[in-house]
Amino acid sequence: MRIASGGIRHETNTFSVTPTTLADYVSASGCGPDIDGGEAVFNRYANTNTIHGGYIDGAKSSGFELIPVLEAYAIPSGVINQESFDTLLNRYLERLKNVLPVDGLLLDLHGAMVTEKHEDGEGAFIEATRALVGQDIPIIVTLDLHANITPKMAELANVIIGYDTYPHIDMYDRGYEAATLIAKMVTGEVSAVQEYRQLPLITLPPMQCTLREPMITILKNLHDLEKQEKILTGTISMGFPFADVKDAGVSILVTADGDEALAKQKTDELAEMLWSYKDELQPDLTTIEDVIDFVNKEEPSGLTIFADGSDNPGGGGPSDGTIALKAMISADFQGGVVGVMFDPETVQQAHEAGVGNTVNAMIGGKTDDRHGETIEINAYVKTLSDGVFVRIGKMQRGLVENIGKMATLVVGGIEIVLASKRMQLNDAEMLRTAGVEPSHKRLLVVKSAVHFRSDFTDMSSHIFDADTPGIHRPDFDNYEYNVLRRPIYPLDQEVSLFG
Ligand SMILES: [Zn+2]
């Protein structure tokens, strides 16, 4: 049995002013300048907690040959330049054509990709794949929990399997699940029948977190369903709200073994269950001033975290927002860390100055005018780093990453960790590689909405969701939606589940 795999992954924040180009894929994919398939994919992803890590082991245990043709990834940012997308898509299709015939396809996609021409980037990707391989070859698509799943995607894919968890710590498990299921579909051991339902509901990152209620209970319901007879898999996709596209928001899929009525019934049950929690999915935000007061007055024994999700590069934020940093400097806060901020110019300046010297730097606020102003500071250069590290937290464990040259600057009692590439701080190794041990600090401002919890929860005593401005701010009043389907809850109040 031969199964091809591949994908172009992106979470597109349509409110970002930073377009996504081919160069961003080359920079972030880690599969060489041509974004290779084959050995490059095995070398990068084998033994890692990633989708392809799961595909690779699932292929071994199910006894099929996995043929990766292209694995392209770029850090979340603005709409993808069409020429860049077409270049990657054509490269993928050309390579796929060269390995045909195959018995099935595993597509590693995100689910919230927008290009200049395609509001539904994954729909376009799967459609092009179908046009090449025909209707009879089974296709399983794995998607992020933040996928805005469209009717077109659900119709073109035999089965969609989304990540269950946020932080996304189950990528390997979902990849493995997809690989073992496709083997059973090819041999005819199972007959997968998928049902899809989109909900008139859109939700925000802090409360999509599956380490918190109500998502703990919602996920338990999903897992109980998956244990039932004739249910092959289920997905609750919470959606990516920072995209003004028609299909942004929540959707549910259930795949049963040969029983369409059962799949439909279970999809409806999950939809009703989730709908009953809709009012518990609203976040509660706290200002940096209140958190500084809290830490200074209460002196908690562990690390306090200010989750600056509004500026989260993992959802397209610039990661150079200065609101929290400015307030900490004004308060002369002691024992603080801010990271990881994207500021290649200041990193370069620090590398030129050298460790032990001071620089007069203009920090942050350079991408747009929605995340606070550039701050001028005199800072001490404490540490310089090449920015290469291996993930040891729960998310994508084992993956080698490169966030470009880094510098840790010190201003008063605050350490500022800067990098030359944008990347969400979701593994403490990102700070350690820049010489900072976060568990010894009093307050960490983290450029992440939720994923930091996968590695920082154990060392923290308190976590606050930030009340800061930005293009990833968890607050619907912050955005103007023109394309999103309506009515939708909570933007509209008069909404019923079944229309
Ligand atoms: Zn996600």
Give a written overview of the molecule.
The structure is a single chain. With 499 residues, the protein is of the alpha/beta class. The chain has two domains: 2-280; 288-473, no CATH class. Helix content is 30%, strand content 22%. The protein contains 15 helices and 18 strands. The chain has helices at 22-29, 38-45, 51-62, 82-99, 121-133, 151-156, 171-187, 205-208, 215-226, 260-275, 288-298, 323-330, 344-353, 429-432, 453-456; strands spanning 2-9, 65-73, 104-108, 139-143, 159-162, 192-198, 231-237, 251-257, 303-307, 334-342, 358-363, 375-385, 388-390, 400-402, 406-411, 413-419, 443-446, 460-465. The strands form four sheets. An eight-stranded mixed sheet has the order 11-12-15-16-10-17-9-18. Strands 2-1-3-4-5 form a five-stranded parallel sheet, with helices on both faces. Helix 5 (121-133) links the parallel strand 3 and strand 4. Helix 3 packs parallel to helix 7 and helix 9 runs antiparallel to helix 10. The longest helix has 18 residues, at 82-99. The chain is globular and about 65 Å long. The relative contact order is 0.13. The structure holds zinc ion.
Span of the ends, CA to CA? 44 Å
Strand content: 15-25%
Number of helices: 15
> What's the mean pLDDT score?
97
Helix content: 25-40%
Cα gyration radius (Å): 22 Å
The total of beta strands comes to 18
Structural class: alpha/beta
**Which strands sit side by side, in order, in the main sheet?**
11-12-15-16-10-17-9-18
Q: What molecules are bound to this protein?
A: zinc ion
Overall geometry comes to globular
| Major sheet | 8 strands, mixed
Q: How many domains, as an integer?
A: 2
Unreliable runs: none
